[in-house]
Amino acid sequence: MKLKYCGLHSKEDVENAVRSSCDYLGFVFAKSKRQVDVADVQRWLVDFPALAQQKVALFVHELPQTIGQIVRTGQFDIVQLHGNESVADVWDIRAELSDVLIWKVIHDSEHALDVMKQFEGAVDGYIVDQKGLTAWGGTGQSFDWSRVSLYQAEGERQGLPVMIAGGVNPDNIASLVRLNPDGIDISSGIESNGRKSKAKMKLIEKEVCKHDDSNNAR
């Protein structure tokens, strides 16, 4: 099971995440309390030239040219589109960045599966999240996890991974890993006083590791 730590916004955040067992480092380039500048990300990572993790750049309704500039400057591996971007927007970004993976965030709703189907063939993976009233994500709110299996089934039909985000934290992650998603995306759930907590990361990783060990033993 893949693990992504998102919303890293300080040198300490980055150091804790790089030294963890997560698979992806997520950085927010959209208006947010966790918004970062690509120059800061470069500076924070200068001591880690050989990363074990892939770097994810998160955008909301950004111009393809701006996305291209940031991704190339920061040498990101994956673009995460977190707004109401269209399929046409995805292809415009692909024209700008032909060698970068694109993940589309799907906000849980009664129409979410139809939205996923619209993006078939255009993206490389999905993240299902809960949209807040005033923010596109990172709110600490979860959706009804009884729907996880539906999203996973659609991802499997398309041959693409599906990660689950929204309100995941050390207190409830055991319930989520039992549903066996392809991955879990966490931001506020690993924070203490607005910073990423090494202790909370370890608790998250313990549950993911326990799940993976159990599956491998079968």
Automatic annotation (TrEMBL):
Its EC number is 5.3.1.24. CDD domains: PRAI. One of its GO terms (molecular function) is phosphoribosylanthranilate isomerase activity. Gene3D superfamilies: Aldolase class I. Residues 4-206 form the N-(5'phosphoribosyl) anthranilate isomerase (PRAI) domain. The keyword Disulfide bond does not apply. It comes from the Bacteria. It holds the Pfam family PRAI. Belongs to the TrpF family. HAMAP family: PRAI. This is N-(5'-phosphoribosyl)anthranilate isomerase. It comes from Shouchella xiaoxiensis. The lineage of its organism: Bacteria, Bacillati, Bacillota, Bacilli, Bacillales.
